[in-house]
Design brief:
Layout lengths: L24 H12 L3 E5 L2 E4 H17 L7 E5 L5 H11 L3 E5 L5 H11 L3 E5 L3 H5 L9 E5 L7 H14 L12 E2 H9 L13 E6 L9 E5 H15 L9 E4 L6 H13 L3 E4 L6 H7 L1
Parallel strand pairs: 1-11, 3-4, 3-5, 5-6, 6-7, 10-11
Antiparallel strand pairs: 1-2, 8-9
Length: 294
C-alpha cells in the first residue's frame, strides 16, 4: 500500500521511529541530567531548578520511597498543581521503579477515593492545601503513608518561609485536617539523602503511569501506560520537532496542569528529553502572576 501521507511530512521528519531507542523514561532522564546538567529544567515563582538539581532531588525522593519498604511496581499518587516539587516527586517515583498515579487536586473526596482504591496506591504526595480532601476518605482508602508539601517548599529558604506563611496564615488557603503521621516532602528528601538508593532495572514493559480519564463517560478509568508507550510517544514528538528546535535552548510555558496527559507528555517529558526550560504556571487564572512568570 502506498503511504500517500508521507509526501506531506515536513523535511527532516522520518517515516518511522524506534520505540526501543531508550529502555525507559528513567534512561531519558538520566541522559538529560548528564547532558544538560547546569541548564535550567524548571522555573516556578521566579525560582529555577537545574537538570542537575532535579537529578539529585528526585534521587533523594526515590531513595526515601525505597527506604519505606515500597517495591518496584507499587503505585504512588501525586496530587498537586504545577510546582517545582511536582517533577521531583514524579521522577523520584519513576526512578524508584514505581508507578505514578496523577491526581487532579480539585477532585472531590468521592473521586479521590475511587482513584486511590482503584489504583491500589501505597502512598500519596499531596499539597497541604488539599489534605482535607483525603482526610474525609482516609478510612475508606488507607495508605501506607502520606507525604505533604507546601506551596513554597522548593523555593529558596527566605522565600519559602514567606510564601508558606502568607498562604497558610494570611490568605488562609490551607483548610484544617486530621491526617495523622504525615511527613513533609522536604523531610522525606532529607531522609532519602542519607538512605541507599538502589537503581532498579526498569524495562519498557514496566508501567510508568496509571493515567486516569476525566470520567465524562462514567467512572474514571486508569490507562496503563508502560515506559515503552511513553518512550514511543516521545520519539514520535521528537521526530516532528527536532528539525525546528535546538536542544538545550528552548523554553516552554506550562499553563496546563502536569497531572493532565497533554502537559505531562508535550511539556514535561518532551522538554526533559530535549534539555528545554519548562516554566510552570501554578495558577493560570491568576493573570497578573501568570504574566509575571513570563
Amino acid at each position: 500500500m502506498d503511504k500517500i501521507w508521507l509526501k506531506n511530512y515536513p523535511a527532516g521528519v522520518p517515516e518511522t521511529i524506534d520505540p526501543d531507542h531508550f529502555a525507559s523514561l528513567v534512561d531519558i532522564l538520566e541522559q538529560s541530567i548528564e547532558k544538560y546538567g547546569e541548564k535550567t529544567a524548571f522555573v516556578n515563582m521566579d525560582s529555577e531548578m537545574s537538570f542537575k538539581e532535579l537529578g539529585l532531588k528526585s534521587r533523594e525522593f526515590a531513595a526515601y520511597l525505597q527506604s519505606k519498604g515500597l517495591k518496584k511496581g507499587d503505585a504512588v499518587a501525586v496530587m498537586m498543581p504545577n510546582l517545582l516539587q511536582y517533577p521531583v516527586a514524579l521522577f523520584g517515583i519513576l526512578r524508584a521503579g514505581m508507578t505514578v498515579v496523577n491526581v487532579n487536586p480539585l477532585y472531590t473526596p468521592r473521586e479521590l477515593k475511587h482513584q486511590l482504591v482503584d489504583s491500589q496506591a501505597k502512598a500519596l504526595v499531596i499539597l497541604e492545601n488539599f489534605a482535607h480532601t483525603y482526610d474525609k476518605i482516609k478510612d475508606e482508602a488507607p495508605l501506607d503513608f502520606v507525604i505533604t508539601t507546601q506551596i513554597g517548599d522548593q523555593l529558596p529558604v527566605h522565600k519559602r518561609f514567606l510564601v508558606n506563611f502568607v498562604v497558610k496564615y494570611i490568605k488562609r488557603m490551607v483548610p484544617s485536617h486530621n491526617v495523622k503521621e504525615t511527613v513533609s516532602l522536604n523531610q522525606a528528601m532529607a531522609k532519602g539523602a542519607i538512605a541507599e538508593y538502589q537503581r532498579p532495572e526498569v524495562t519498557g514493559d514496566d508501567i510508568a503511569f496509571l493515567q486516569y480519564t476525566g470520567g465524562t463517560t462514567g467512572v474514571a478509568k486508569g490507562a496503563m501506560l508502560s515506559h515503552r508507550n511513553m518512550v514511543a510517544n516521545l520519539e514520535q514528538v521528537s521526530a516532528c520537532i527536532t528539525p525546528i528546535m535546538s536542544d538545550g535552548e528552548e523554553t516552554i510555558i506550562t499553563a496546563l496542569p502536569l497531572y493532565h496527559i497533554f502537559a505531562l507528555t508535550a511539556n514535561c517529558l518532551t522538554f526533559i528529553k530535549h534539555g528545554g526550560k519548562n516554566v510552570l504556571i501554578t495558577n493560570p487564572r491568576d493573570m497578573p502572576n501568570f504574566v509575571k512568570e513570563l
